[in-house]
Amino acid sequence: MTDVILETRALTKEFKGFTAVNDVNLAVQRGHIHALIGPNGAGKTTCFNLLTKFLVPTSGKILFNGKDITDARPAQIARMGIIRSFQISAVFPHLTVLQNVRIGLQRELGTSFHFWRSEKSLSSLDDRAMELLAEVDLTEFADTVTVDMPYGRKRALEIATTLAMKPELMLLDEPTQGMGHEDVHRVTELIKKVSAGRTILMVEHNMNVVSGICDKITVLQRGALLAEGSYAEVSTNAQVMEAYMGTTSAELEGAH
């Protein structure tokens, strides 16, 4: 039996008659980088919102380390070690890079998010914050005000703040969205680097990003599981190729 950290059973979400996630059975293995991919409208983000408890499933179950978390609240699963990084850079723009990471680390002091704590009590976190910045290649940006950083570096900072919360399972939502080629490459390498000893589940639309780093890929289409396997397996799957190419020629002819 492989060690499954996160599992869904017949996970389904309906919105007023529209089924956004349809009977999805997902199994994420501990230590893997697992990607959830699919064309626009495939249900990837809805699925992620169910896993992180921002949405309540219509039916089905979610298990984390074998424990049913279907009815848990977002704060509860965060305490369990499921930490999500957001599609839009979830950082404080007018704090420095170091200060952003330090806020993520406050949880360990038992003073989580008490912004009025004295600077002195927080400075004990500086060494650990600098270690995390080194892990994501941001040491030189420690004193930079976040708003002044390039977009790709902000995403790296977001990964550092996610790491600060000691995730057992990291959920990355479209980590390379809106990036140029150079930033995409840097963030992809970064995900690979920080995955050592961790489990990552990422929503991604870019096949090139997942090709080199993912152990397993789950492809969704119209809310349902279309295919699953290694990159080599899913990238040569005829149904996946058609889903990514969009409509078939027969459908196009019928549209005229």
Automatic annotation (TrEMBL):
<feature type="domain" description="ABC transporter">
    <location>
        <begin position="6"/>
        <end position="247"/>
    </location>
</feature>
<keyword id="KW-0067">ATP-binding</keyword>
<dbReference type="InterPro" id="IPR051120">
    <property type="entry name" value="ABC_AA/LPS_Transport"/>
</dbReference>
<keyword id="KW-0547">Nucleotide-binding</keyword>
<dbReference type="GO" id="GO:0005524">
    <property type="term" value="F:ATP binding"/>
</dbReference>
<keyword id="KW-0813">Transport</keyword>
<dbReference type="Pfam" id="PF12399">
    <property type="entry name" value="BCA_ABC_TP_C"/>
</dbReference>
<dbReference type="InterPro" id="IPR003593">
    <property type="entry name" value="AAA+_ATPase"/>
</dbReference>
<protein>
    <submittedName>
        <fullName>ATP-binding cassette domain-containing protein</fullName>
    </submittedName>
</protein>
<dbReference type="InterPro" id="IPR003439">
    <property type="entry name" value="ABC_transporter-like_ATP-bd"/>
</dbReference>
<keyword id="KW-1003">Cell membrane</keyword>
<keyword id="KW-0472">Membrane</keyword>
<dbReference type="InterPro" id="IPR032823">
    <property type="entry name" value="BCA_ABC_TP_C"/>
</dbReference>
<dbReference type="Pfam" id="PF00005">
    <property type="entry name" value="ABC_tran"/>
</dbReference>
<dbReference type="InterPro" id="IPR027417">
    <property type="entry name" value="P-loop_NTPase"/>
</dbReference>
